[in-house]
Specification:
403 residues, alpha/beta, 2 domains, five-stranded parallel β-sheet, 14 helices, binds cytidine-5'-triphosphate, multifunctional enzyme, Flavoprotein, EC 4.1.1.36, flavoprotein, FMN
Length: 403
């Protein structure tokens, strides 16, 4: 075995039946060069593209192909096979395989392993551009991401079928890099961190709602940054426009009350980062049917206060996360307001930012924040939201590491 970043890591490689299966031969070599042990599993369809003989020759291990193989079952059952790996890698993940994964099929060895595994799963999709763009595939992608499956690619380019667009499997070295990141024992390895993100939508009636301008991009960046330091991340998001983070568990909600329920049922966690722009009020009794214009006059909306999720979690006497980080969106006296907000809510840190329209921060790609803790305030220079996220994640890692 060669020494490298993946030394001692076992990867269960599920090869799907697509033309990109040929790239798996190189992928296996590259993974092994870095020290990984690769156990290949081939679907029936993949054998039309590469032979089990070449796969096993490169892997230096026999290929698993059959669900009902009595000899193998006696040696190592398929459940165990799915559990001994550090990562299950599906490459190429065809449209069909993605559909089966998203819907919990288990009618061959590959899909059964995917259902039985308790190890992280990563997939490298590969298919014709139309198939990739098809609403069914996009729906399956959302489901799989929500289940915590990490996705690498697909890339855009010329395809074997003669068309052009997204659908080409990521190159072996890109997949290797994603595997290395996923398996790196970062400083947050073994830590469970909750992140809330995006706006909430508070219904007025079945077609109208109250919302805010949060794009969710800072929350997504924070979840990605925590994940890349090795944390297990639970991402509770409102209907945000930003792309969802990868390799994390995603819970989609609409209202503040739903966000509260999702947060409470995700506890216990080591840390909670409350980046969501939660609506402070909801319409007290949203109408079940569409409110119509009438001659009687304008509708009057009565408001009720939403639960303050950050305050509730910060003030828990039992099961409070070790570190609670809130956000404050302010337009005036940023530090002063955020400092008193930290005390009032009872959280450990507040990441305060000035969201006056002239700053362009709300919905923009940059952020200028002040980190407020018990020790005072620290203004960070204006930087990209990814950089803010990386710095915050590092700070969280240092703090949890010292506990
Ligand atoms: N928050 C929450 N639940 C709410 C409202 C806010 O968890 N119902 C969290 C947000 O995720 C954020 C922080 O609390 O971390 C923001 O607090 P909030 O009091 O809403 O601050 P602002 O939006 O800045 O509003 P205000 O200045 O009116 O207090």
């Amino acid at each position: 075995m060669q020494m490298g970043k993946l030394t001692g890591k076992r990867i269960l490689l599920i090869i799907g039946g697509g033309i990109a299966a040929y790239k798996c031969l190189d992928l296996i070599r590259r993974l092994r060069e870095r020290g990984a042990v690769v156990s290949p599993v081939m679907t029936r369809a993949s054998e039309e593209f590469v032979t089990p003989l070449s796969v096993s020759a490169l892997a230096g291990e026999e290929v698993h192909r059959d669900l009902f193989d009595l000899t193998k079952e006696a040696e190592m059952g398929h459940i165990q096979l799915s559990r001994v790996a550090d990562l299950v890698l599906v490459a190429p993940a065809t449209a069909d395989l993605m559909a089966k994964m998203a819907n919990g099929h288990a009618n061959d060895l590959a899909t059964t392993l995917l259902m039985a595994t308790d190890t992280p799963v990563m997939m490298a999709p590969s298919m014709n551009v139309r198939m990739w763009d098809h609403p069914a595939t996009q729906r399956n992608l959302m489901t799989l991401q929500g289940d915590g499956v990490a996705v690498v690619g697909p890339n855009e380019g010329d395809m074997a079928c003669g068309e052009y667009g997204p659908g080409r499997m990521a190159e072996p070295m890109e997949i290797v890099a994603a595997v290395e990141t996923a398996l790196a024992d970062g400083p947050l390895h073994g830590r469970r961190i909750l992140v809330t993100s995006g706006p909430t939508h508070e219904p007025i009636d079945p077609v109208r709602y109250i919302a805010n301008r949060s794009s969710g991009s800072q929350g997504t960046a924070i979840a990605n940054a925590l994940r890349s330091l090795g944390a297990e991340v639970i991402f509770v998001t409102g209907p945000a426009e930003a792309a969802r983070p990868t390799g994390v568990q995603i819970i989609e909600i609409e209202t503040a009350q739903e966000m509260r329920d999702a947060v409470l049922s995700s506890l216990p966690v080591d840390a909670g980062v409350f980046a969501a722009a939660v609506a402070d009020w909801r319409v007290a009794s949203a109408s079940r049917s569409k409110i119509k214009k009438t001659k009687a006059g304008l509708p009057v909306l009565e408001f009720a206060e939403n639960p303050d999720i950050l305050a509730e979690v910060s003030q828990m006497t039992d099961g409070r996360p070790g570190l609670v980080v809130g956000f404050a969106a302010e337009t005036d006296d940023v530090v002063e307001n955020a400092t008193s907000k930290r005390v009032r809510k009872g959280c450990d840190w507040i990441v305060a930012n000035d969201v006056s329209p002239e700053t362009g921060i709300m919905g923009g790609s940059e952020n200028a924040v002040v980190l407020i803790s018990e020790d005072g305030s620290e203004a960070w220079p204006r930087m990209g939201k990814d950089a803010v996220a990386a710095r915050l994640a590092d700070r969280i890692a240092q703090t949890l590491g010292a506990v």
